[in-house]
Structure to design on (259 residues):
């Protein structure tokens, strides 16, 4: 029901979350150049690079190509006002940034609640940014408590988004326990969680709307696991951390999803 048919007509998305791995524009430019050189011809997937916010606009403006888009790793939920140290969605949009990661497990660990994530996601959509809303349980258990956590996490993180905007954001199933791990979980474990997330959205918005939401996976992906994930029904792209700052690995991941 929520298998292959849901992927029809929707581009796969490969996101590079550079975290604080790239900290100068020189390093960033070199990485972009190296990735661009290795991108497959006839690119069929959407590729988004997410440097830290202080570098993203500059790197976007110096990138001569058109095949990759730029995002960043967080955004604030107010457009303007007395909010020292925050980044407004509008400032990103006007710098050519198209995507923004919100609710990454590393941001949630520093205080982002579901409601903050929900506000960030909806403000981003209103500003015409495409949010990549990260969800996922911090730990797994054998009694299935993680499923209750996950459905609440999805429902509350999307609570402020209007169902008609189902195609204007992406969900990343990006569970804390799988991030920075020695290896990614099996495609089966991920596929089940993705199916569960889609079912949770269907319970909120109905099946038709739920099928419009793109769901990707993040957590220790590399060349080998990308090959497996690319052929797993329901997984519509990947979010890479460590592998995204290695041009060879990142373009291998992209290539896996070209098929
Ligand atoms: P990782 O990071 O690929 O280095 O595990 C993934 C993530 O932050 O989602």
């Amino acid at each position: 029901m929520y298998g292959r048919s849901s992927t029809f007509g929707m581009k796969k998305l490969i996101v590079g979350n550079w975290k604080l791995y790239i900290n100068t524009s020189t390093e960033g430019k070199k990485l972009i150049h190296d990735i661009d050189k290795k991108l497959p011809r006839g690119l069929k997937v959407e590729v988004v690079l997410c440097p830290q916010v202080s570098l993203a606009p500059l790197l976007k403006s110096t990138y001569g190509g058109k095949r990759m888009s730029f995002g960043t790793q967080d955004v604030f939920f107010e457009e303007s006002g007395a909010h020292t140290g925050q980044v407004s969605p509008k400032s990103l949009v006007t710098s050519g940034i198209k995507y923004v990661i919100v609710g990454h497990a590393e941001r949630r660990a520093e205080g982002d609640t579901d409601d903050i994530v929900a506000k960030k996601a909806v403000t981003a959509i209103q500003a015409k940014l495409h949010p990549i809303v990260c969800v996922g349980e911090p730990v797994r258990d054998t009694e299935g408590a993680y499923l209750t956590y996950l459905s609440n996490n999805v429902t509350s993180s999307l609570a402020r988004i209007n169902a008609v905007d189902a195609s204007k954001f992406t969900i990343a199933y990006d569970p804390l326990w799988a991030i920075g791990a020695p290896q990614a979980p099996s495609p089966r474990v991920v596929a089940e969680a993705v199916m569960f997330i889609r079912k949770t959205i269907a319970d909120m918005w109905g099946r038709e709307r739920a099928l419009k939401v793109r769901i990707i996976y993040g957590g220790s992906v590399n060349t080998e696991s990308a090959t497996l994930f690319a052929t797993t029904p329901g997984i519509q792209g990947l979010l890479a951390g460590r592998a995204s700052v290695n041009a060879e690995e990142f373009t291998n991941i992209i290539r896996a999803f070209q098929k």
Summary: Residues 1-7 have pLDDT under 50 and may be disordered. The longest strand covers residues 130-135.
